[in-house]
Amino acid sequence: MKKIATVLLLGLAFVGAAAAKDHAVKGYVKKDSTSVAPQVQTGPNATKVDNHSSKGNVGPVTVKEAAKDPYAVPLLKDARPLQ
After folding, report:
1. Nearest C-alpha neighbor of 37 from the set 62, 5, 8
2. Domain ranges in the chain?
């Protein structure tokens, strides 16, 4: 029984560690014939400040400092004032 529990715990630890890593995304062509280059994305997590595009971080491929404010509120395109 202890062996099974140990194997399950090690398996869960491995899956958790693999989920947090950066990963490559293939490039593709949009409907309007523009191409999107391959890129590296961060693994999903609950924070916004450790993404490559967040202010204070450096992109792994471009080696440029990012400029996006991770806490900026996005503007809605079709927003109407409250009545």
Report:
1. 62
2. 1-73
